[in-house]
Amino acid sequence: MSVDDRMKGIGRRDLLSLAAWGTFGASMVTALVGVFRLPKPAVIPEPSQKVKVGPPGSIPEMEYRIVAGRNIFVSRGEEGVFAISAICTHLGCVVAPAPTGFHCPCHGSRFDALGRVVGGPAPRGLDWLKVTGAPDGELVVDEGEPVPPRTYLKV
Amino acid sequence: MGAWKEYVANLRAVPRAAWGSLVRHGPPVTDRSRAETVFQNLFLHIHSTRVHRWSLRWSYTMGLGLICAASFVLLTVTGLLLMFYYKPSTALAYQSIKDIHYVVPSGRFIRNLHRWGAHLMVVVVLLHMARVFYTASYRRPREMNWMFGLVLMVLTLGLSFSGYLLPWDQLAYWAVTIGANIAQSPKELTDAVGITRYVDIGGLQKTLLLGSRSVGEDALIRFYVLHVFFLPLLLGVFMGLHFWRIRKDGGLSRPADADERLGPPGDDVLPVFSQAPRKTYGLMAVVRGTSPSVGRGPENTLPSWPHLLTAETAVFMLTLAVTLALSFFFDAPLKEMANPLVPENPAKAPWYFLGLQEIVSFSAFAGGVLLPMITLLGLALIPYLDREPEGVGLWFGARDRGKEVFLLSAAFGLAAAVSMEAFAIRFGWLRSWFPGIPQIAITVVNPGTVLTALYMAFSIWILRRENSTRLSAIAIFTCFLTGFVVLTLIGTWFRGPNWEFFWSPSRWPVH
Hints:
The structure holds two protein chains of two kinds.
Chain A lengths: L2 H5 L4 H26 L12 E5 L10 E2 L5 E5 L4 E5 L10 E3 L2 E3 L6 E3 L4 E3 L8 E6 L5 E9 L8
Antiparallel strand pairs in A: 1-10, 2-3, 3-4, 4-9, 5-6, 6-7, 7-8, 9-10
Chain B lengths: L1 H11 L1 H9 L8 H9 L10 E2 L6 H4 L2 H19 L10 H10 L4 H28 L8 H23 L4 H14 L2 H8 L7 H10 L6 H32 L9 H5 L39 E2 H26 L24 H7 L3 H22 L16 H26 L2 H4 L5 H6 L2 H20 L2 H25 L18
Antiparallel strand pairs in B: 1-2
Helix pairs in contact in B: 5-7, 5-14, 6-7, 7-8, 7-14, 8-9, 8-12, 8-16, 9-11, 15-16, 15-21, 16-21, 17-20, 17-21, 20-21
């Protein structure tokens, strides 16, 4: 085999060598994909995000009630009942009610009474949560389902 | 009868023979046996047999790298002891820490040692990086070891952060909630572009870290496994690489004329190569120079035994003494048990993350992801962007004016950081002036990014004015270092409830 022949494309040994390295690479990648798939949970191990908050009559008007054991505020305005998440949209602390709305203790985000950002680092307003009626007459708030702000449930 | 006598004689000689089979060289009194002490011992042979006098000067290294290694050993030992009693479950973790603190014999002391060792390691890792930087020791051929050092720094911070959750107290819970949401903060960017539904990098990072939507049982187990297995293992591997590269790169850095600068070795230095050599001079062919040195080592090096090894032992003892004293007088804190419904107010991370928390309080993505990434990238690029030959192995070594530029940069870094903070605290930022401003504008322009831009501009100004990449590197490194210190101090002492500014914690409102 002359030098010229070797220059023309790949020979048998080169092909086999390439195939071997290709197989090695492919099996490594497959193994890695398998390894890295594992830590991403397929099912989030948490209790249900839906919570009963009592009959409409128990929701205070023009003030906030915090749902026991949950980070949710519920209230009733003229348009109906609504729920706001107490989780700050900045870095996940729990906001506290303040005279003008809500304050976050961690980095000082401020929200007005309807959850809109009025100061601090929060990138967006507090999430509004979906409120539905259950067959037994109680209201249900779904923490996993944010809705556009100013979405009320007429009661 | 001869066999019996021999048997008895052998029996009596067992201790001496056993010792002789363990340590094959004689007592370290000759050059040869001193060298053998080092290279025939598995644990010591990571050292070279001879060491340059420049590397032994306290004022040069201050033993900082060794203190890091010593505190890692201390943390491994105390950590393994704590694992006997610690239970990584949300129901039991807090109580098991209380048990360790109040019931387990010497448990409180071991826990305190673990806590103080961790603080010490973080401080000293940062100081060690500063030492290596200011002595220009990252230069060729040590660029890759600088990189390994950066990896070790990140792993050290990762270990601190993962260990922070384990006590499952209020501080732990909320600091990790904040940390996990920082991991999620690329959402700020994807939200602004409107692609979160398709590519949710932030959400994925948070899910991988917590194994759930919020900090709970799964997060605790993940942090535990990271803290006691993956991160220490990685750190050990990179420590091995780091040490190995020191040898391969020719020992610690020193100026080319180190020997002249030091002058002739003192009288107390052991005479070297004075005994009859047992090897031929055949190797002379590969040694640089024209004639073999007689009566002194090459470049006046000293034998590692005893000079280097006694110095190392002293540093190790000092580290231990400091952590023991701190652990004796100051207990590791433990707040109330974690309560997912009521955050700490203020919820502060450990002190070395408070600088980060300060810029995170302007924008989660810019402060928590963007600026740390820029900092790490900048640090990684330094050895490849500054390739001037001058100044290696000298404090503030540079073509000239190293110290002046350092002082100037420290002053600028301090002034810029303090005035930027003062401005933001006094006048607020974009959202206080234009409430409707889109988030992306704040992500891009906030006190943290503006400060970074100022620092970059300053270092480019130095680059052009001084016409030196090294001086420019000193400028940017010093600016970032002073900025880090200022932000950390503000986060630690001047931020109170709702992350508002207070002149002192005694002025915090009572509630």
